[in-house]
Structure to design on (127 residues):
């Protein structure tokens, strides 16, 4: 009987040890999948940012009327001066506010088309 109790206790301890191993393995798998998802999201964001980062120049206007602006990670710049550090870019639309005006651009065919805060749709191409 004593031998049977020892054997029973041995199996109970082994089962508890096995549960901990399973919990640790599942935790490692969950963290691995989570970090992979996070890295994928970061990579996608960086790829979207590369579409818009750079200097943009208005097309189809007189040379003395050309408007240019630059999109950097830090914000929107005009003539080297920071207009705003608060802007949004989702891969198809760029939006920012400067003063009381909201500027909205649609990304299409490697160009930014401003469709808000102007009386016409200005087209900007990367320089």
């Amino acid at each position: 009987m004593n031998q049977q109790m020892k054997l029973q206790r041995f199996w109970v301890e082994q089962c508890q040890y096995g549960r901990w191993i399973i919990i640790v393995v599942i935790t490692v798998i969950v963290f691995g999948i989570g970090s992979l998802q996070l890295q994928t999201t970061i990579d996608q964001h960086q790829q979207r940012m590369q579409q818009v980062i750079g200097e943009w120049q208005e097309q189809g206007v007189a040379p003395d009327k050309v408007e240019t602006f630059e999109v950097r990670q830090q914000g929107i710049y005009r003539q080297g001066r920071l207009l705003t550090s608060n802007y949004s870019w989702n891969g198809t639309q760029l939006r920012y506010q400067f003063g009381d005006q909201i500027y909205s651009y649609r990304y299409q065919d490697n160009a930014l088309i401003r469709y808000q805060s102007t009386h016409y749709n200005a087209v900007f191409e990367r320089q």
User: Anything to note?
Assistant: DSSP finds one helix and nine strands in the chain. Helices lie at 2-52. The mean pLDDT is 87.
